[in-house]
Design goal:
Elements lengths: L6 E3 L7 H10 L8 E5 L7 H15 L5 E4 L9 H13 L5 E5 L3 H8 L8 E5 L7 H9 L3 E5 L11 H10 L3 H11 L3 E2 L6 H8 L8 H8 L9 H4 L7
Parallel strand pairs: 1-2, 2-3, 3-4, 4-5, 5-6, 6-7
Helix pairs in contact: 1-2, 6-7
The protein binds adenosine-2'-5'-diphosphate.
Length: about 240
């Protein structure tokens, strides 16, 4: 928080909601200046599960959640359409401000929108220069679904790309700053992760420079459809 971050991405699955809540309370900022995203536990899919999960998240955080997501569609289970209904009901009851999804492919978004439901505020997906996922991003843009990028550095692998290294030298920026800057410039919310205070500070210093259109295009061209975390993505495949 001291480095300037104002959006915290947490989840029941990460088992760190209580720590996030403690940090939010002790950082000295007004709650309204902080945005907290959290996510339903895997397997919490009907209305009762959703009610209990929201209670547990709010209890652990010690404050409300600004955005609540279905963490994975779990397509083989096939219950995410009813989970989306339950999240809409919780929003209508005033228990959740914004609701969204994570790791949803087009077919899964089609399914939850088929009954005329309003679109999720956000779809949080893996996205980085080696895995731009533009088809899904365009689909989301057409439906006013914001895209939030997890693993925006490709789990660190993109930092080894020679083109990124060259641009970092040219612009006198770190490789991570170049990649992190690209995400919001193409319209995505970016969720960087780093462990050391040094990197956390360094990664936050990305708003005092801009990539020009040619530089953005250079990074766009690095797309090779290569997910950095295929083991996680396979959880989302194999059904609709
Ligand atoms: P660490 O956590 O040891 O700081 P992603 O967000 O794409 O999953 O990438 C996270 C990985 O990128 C982590 O291994 C993290 O390392 C590494 N990372 C984050 N920021 C930087 C940075 N500024 N320089 C080098 N590696 C970084």
């Amino acid at each position: 928080m001291r480095a300037g971050y104002r959006h915290i991405d947490t989840a029941s699955y990460y088992r760190n909601e209580a720590g996030v809540g403690a940090a939010v309370r002790s950082c000295g900022l007004a709650r309204n200046d902080i945005w907290i995203t959290s996510k339903l536990p895997l397997g919490a899919d009907d209305a009762d599960d959703v009610r209990r999960a929201i209670d547990a998240t709010v209890d652990a955080l010690g404050t409300h959640v600004d955005l609540y997501l279905i963490h994975w569609p779990m397509p083989r289970r096939g219950r995410y359409p009813r989970t989306w209904q339950a999240l809409q009901a919780a929003q209508a009851d005033g228990r959740l401000a914004e609701i969204g999804v994570s790791n949803f492919h087009r077919a899964q978004l089609d399914r939850i929108l088929a009954d005329g439901s309003p679109p999720p505020t956000v779809n949080q997906i893996e996205a980085h220069p080696h895995f731009a996922d533009n088809t899904l991003r365009h689909y989301c843009a057409e439906r006013t679904i914001a895209v939030a990028a997890w693993s925006p550095l490709g789990a660190g692998s993109v930092l080894h790309d020679p083109a990124i290294q060259a641009m970092a030298r040219e612009l006198d920026r770190t490789r991570a700053q170049i990649v992190l800057r690209w995400h919001p410039q193409r319209g995505d919310i970016v969720l960087p992760k780093a462990s050391s205070p040094h990197r956390i500070h360094q990664n936050a210093a990305m708003f005092d420079f801009t990539l020009d259109p040619r530089q953005v295009a250079r990074i766009d061209h690095l797309d090779r459809g290569e997910a950095a975390r295929p083991s996680r993505r396979c959880l989302t495949s194999g059904g609709q």
